[in-house]
Fold:
Amino acid sequence: MVLKRRIVILIFLLSLSAVSFAQQLPLYSQYLYNRYLINPAVAGSDGYTSLNLTAREQWLGYSGAPRTYSFSYQTRLLKRSYIIKSTSVKKRGQFKPSRDGRVGIGGYVFSDRNGLINRTGMQLTYAYHTWLYGGTQLSFGLSATGFHFRIDDQKIRFEDPNDPILNSNLRQGVFIPDANFGVYVLNYRFNAGFSVEQLFQSYIKLGNPGYENLTLMRHYYLFGSYTFPLSVDSELHPNFMFRMSEQLKPQVDIGLRYSFKEDFWAGLSYRTGNVVITSVGARFDNLYFGYAFDYSFNEIQSYTYGSHELMIAMKFGSSARRYRWLDRY
Structure:
């Protein structure tokens, strides 16, 4: 189908408005199993080295609906090397750890499509973990981020092959740098985190005076969960997540998750906007598999097959590795 120039521009502006005023960042339903996706302070917080792959199809069957793929890596730099430290000239030197295991690092890449807009992004993270009274860990994280933003011109055709818009930044794409910051509190009974993404509110410069530069809005996340032991092997985890931007209405998830021996889990959540999320998962050795299904009670559900999200993760390090560094301080 051949689109006239004014129709194309209208589509572009509508698509860009969606970025400016709605879902600028990827949306996830299984963030509880990889909190690093929404908070950089989580990197290395549990002591494992983790690889996580997530694929999400939002509003499956609806043309141009959001589609997100992400891959993340995180680890903690534990004590591995030693230096010789002398206590006095008369006493022998003693071996002291040169690193105390308080540093976490991580990386994250994603590909996100929303309508005609394609974004490929990444972040690199440094996290610092310290201890409060009672075995509670306090973490801070800072990420350098950036993504490549462009319009998918393969889905449209122009009457005039020399149309100036074909040579603008809309088609060629632009790279937008920014940063994320997070704080995370972890205890064997509870966890809570607060983070800010797109901290500097960078501009999308389109390279054409006919279009206004669009601002990336800050996004705020507040989440938490608590663990209630039901027996030696099973636990119940109520949880919540609050998400908003400076132009996006607050969105709240309230849920409950059941886990058995960390080998099986199932959860049910309600997201404001009349969305119900069900999730299940299982662990096999160091492999973790999770699946979530979002069902919307809005009118759009009659045109889609719901939203589907698949998660595959690997964690290296025995179960004893978790909280193992408690005795290292």
